[in-house]
Amino acid sequence: MPELPEVEALAHDLAKRLDGRAIVRVDIANFSCLKTYDPPITALSGGMVDGVSRHGKFLDFDVSGTHLVLHLALAGWVRWKDEVPKLPAKPNSKSPLAARVILDDGSGLDITEAGTRKSLALYVVRDPQDVEGIARLGPDPLAEEFTTDVLAGILETAGRAQIKGVLRYQSTIAGIGNAYSDEILHAAKMSPFKPANSLTEFEVQLLHDTIRSVLGDAVARADGLPASELKREKKSNMAVHGQAGEKCPVCGDIVRSVSFADRSLQYCATCQTGGKPLADRRMSKLLK
After folding, report:
1. Which positions fall inside the Formamidopyrimidine-DNA glycosylase catalytic domain (predicted)?
2. What's the average model confidence in pLDDT over 248-273?
């Protein structure tokens, strides 16, 4: 799933490509991805792209005051095309194409989603705050307003909730997903199961600084990269996420994994849990 650093880089890359360009039309190839009906998708036709920005993990295209908002979900992506087909995209349930944006010179964007689980979402709205997911976003962790005191309040309010979940919950902190929460907790040497309100003042400061450094470094690495290179860049710089069975780059221990629901987390026991492996409840049930 694209998270804050990748969506930030996408916004920068697309802003440079699209700024001042006119949209001829937007074709919807998978109608389940379009979540709004007023304004209609045709309201974007003829509009000029005045900017591309990010809200958490949402992309926001300002088209002459009407906003095309995109959430890429788990397997969505945006692909730049120097030339797109002249004929409108046809609905096809087997194609990864969800939507296509056609620009005035024949170039455009293909918005795609891999796999059979379709959760990519497109919204056409007058104001980004009309999108429920944006309206309920927590503070952006790279904004100046995200202070240590703000984080301390979030953790205290979360009570005994596991810190991994607190970092991923978008209404609490915007933009952090499964991958970067693993990386942040590894860099801060904290267990993903640690209760949110158990952190000392020092640990809150450490976590705050680590959130900003891990995300800030990822944004810096991704800045200027085209969309086609962002996934590879993200994967190649992960210390523990997606690295189960590999050696921890800090201590050399084996990176472990815990499964939950339809996802998993990765961590280093030596760096994060005092050498104690975390219980994998799903695997425990399978072994019974």
Report:
1. 2-120
2. 93
